[in-house]
Structure formats: structure tokens, C-alpha cells
Amino acid sequence: MEDDKYQKTRQAVIIMQSTVRGWIVRKRYIKAKQSAVIIQSMHRRYRAVRSFQNTRDQVVRIQRRWRVKKLGDEEKRRYLKMKRTTVILQAWSRGLAVRRTVRSWHQNATKIQASWRGFRERQSFLVQILAAVRIQRRFRACQSMRREQVRFKELRRAAVRVQAVYRGMQGRRLAQKHRAARLIQATYRMYQTRRQYQRCKSAAVLLQATFRGYKCRTS
């Protein structure tokens, strides 16, 4: 009966460890996918900035050409109009670039915060896994203690029979005293073993409740 309980507990811990490894792999895949999306967005923004810089360079070259040439009044008005439009376009482009940069910073900060929360949750879950392993070891120790209890009971019954045989023998009183002392010591060890088993059982129940609460929070 105790071996069946041990096997079931062991299988449950193995399944839980496998689930944790799968969960970590999925989180890494999602993080890599998000990083690829960020890189693509940065590349598009870089191309937009380069396009704007090329346009600006063309406008600057046009301005220099217009300064060299002698323009008529009409051409001057067109030049001034183009210059004003260029200034407005530059101001609008700079504002757009700033807004995009701020938005990108905000998104990156949000992702970093989410990654940090995920890291803290993984750390907490790993601590719980380590606690489960420790409880598993204690459970095996408790099983060993129970086997010792069975052997102790057999020894105690044998001691009772021996005491019954030697009760009438006056010459063996000293031996009976020694056996009684050993019996008292064994009884005390059995009491300590029972207390250790109860502590292990309480720790296992607490871990199960903690794991169920963690699953409820993450689901």
C-alpha cells in the first residue's frame, strides 16, 4: 500500500516536471517571436528614416541650385513656397519620428516588465519544484521509518514473550532490566518516527495546495 502511494507521488512529480519544461520551451518560443517582430519594426523604421534623409538631401541640393541661379520673381515665390513646405515637412517628420521613438520605448518597457514578471513566476515555480523533490525524499525516509516500525513491533512482541518466559526466573532480573531499557528507547524512537511522518505529510499537503493556487493564478 505504501509502495503504491510512493509510485503515484513519484509519477505526479515526474508529470509536473515535464509540464514545467514544456511551459518554459513555449515561453522561450514566444519571446523569440516577439524579438523577431521588434527587429522587423526597427528595420522598417530605419528604412523610413533613410527615405526621409534622402528626400531632405534632395531638397537641400535644390535649395543650393536655386541660390546659385538668378530667378525671376515668380520663380522666387515658388522657391519660397517650396522652402516653407520643406520646413513644415521637416518639422512634421521630426515630430513623427519622436512619437514613434517614444511609442517604441514604451512598448519595449512593457515587454521588459512582462518578461520580468514571467521570470519571477518561473523562479517561484522552480522553488516549488525543489520543495516537491525535498518532500519526495522525506516521504521515502518516512516509508523506511515505517518499515523500521514494523520490525520494532515484531521485536517488541518477541521481547514480551521473552519477558513472560523469564518472569519467574530470579537469576535473569538484570537481563530483563536491560531489555526493558532497550524497549523504552525503541518506543521513544518510534514516537519520533511518527512525528517526522506527520510533518512530511503536512508539508506534502501544503505543497499541493500551493501548486493548485499557482495553476489558478496562471490560468
Our count of helices gives 3
Number of strands: 0
Distance between the termini: 34 Å
Low-pLDDT runs: none
List SSEs in N-to-C order: HHH
Q: What fraction strand?
A: under 5%
Query: Helix proportion of residues, in percent?
Result: over 70%
Sheet with the most strands?
none
Please give the radius of gyration in angstroms. Answer: 40 Å
GO molecular function: calmodulin binding
Pfam family, one: IQ
Subcellular location: Cytoplasm
Keywords: Calmodulin-binding, Cytoplasm, Repeat
Question: How would you describe this protein?
Answer:
With 219 residues, this protein is mostly helical. The protein has helices at 2-68, 73-166, 173-218. The mean pLDDT is 70. Keywords: Calmodulin-binding, Cytoplasm, Repeat. InterPro entries: ASPM, IQ_motif_EF-hand-BS, P-loop_NTPase. GO terms for molecular function: calmodulin binding.
Task: Kindly list the characteristics that best describe this protein.
219 residues; mainly alpha
